């Protein structure tokens, strides 16, 4: 994106210690908080997504991983002959 005019001030609440730690990282990389935030906003607009994994993303990935483990476990049980046939199920429940 072209250089944009910086004509809007933003403020937000955050944890002070977290802010200072992030600021130290940015300083080590010769970046200001303003530069980092502008780059973040530019990236969000350009790619229409957040450029990092969020807590919600991590939760979803954990759920998918749990489901995959359960599916694999069930498939292994099936391959080992650990299953109930339809006729056994009908007999068991009187269907």
Care to describe what's here?
With 95 residues, the protein is an all-alpha fold. It folds into two domains: 13-52; 53-95. The chain is built from four helices and no strands. The longest helix has 25 residues, at 55-79.
Total DSSP helices: 4
N-C termini distance? 66 Å
Overall mean pLDDT score? 94
Q: What is the tally of beta strands?
A: 0
**Rg calculated over all Cα atoms:** 26 Å
How would you characterize the largest beta sheet? none
Indicate the proportion of strand residues. under 5%
Poorly predicted runs of 5 or more residues: none
Structural class: mainly alpha
Shape: elongated
- Multimeric state: single chain
> How many domains comprise the coordinates?
2
Bin the helical content. Answer: 55-70%
* H/E element order: HHHH
Task: Give a quick summary of the entry.
By secondary structure, this protein is an all-alpha fold. The protein is built from four helices and no strands.
Features:
single chain; 95 residues; mainly alpha; elongated
Provide the fold topology.
Blueprint: H1 16-28, H2 33-47, H3 55-79, H4 86-93
């Amino acid at each position: 994106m072209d250089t944009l005019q910086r004509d809007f001030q933003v403020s937000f609440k955050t944890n002070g210690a977290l802010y200072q730690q992030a600021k130290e990282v940015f300083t080590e990389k010769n970046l200001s908080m303003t530069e980092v935030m502008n780059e973040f906003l530019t990236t969000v607009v350009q790619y229409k997504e957040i450029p990092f994994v969020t807590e919600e993303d991590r939760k979803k990935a954990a759920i998918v991983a749990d489901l995959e483990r359960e599916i694999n476990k069930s498939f292994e049980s099936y391959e080992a002959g650990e299953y109930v046939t339809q006729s056994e199920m009908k007999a068991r429940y009187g269907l």
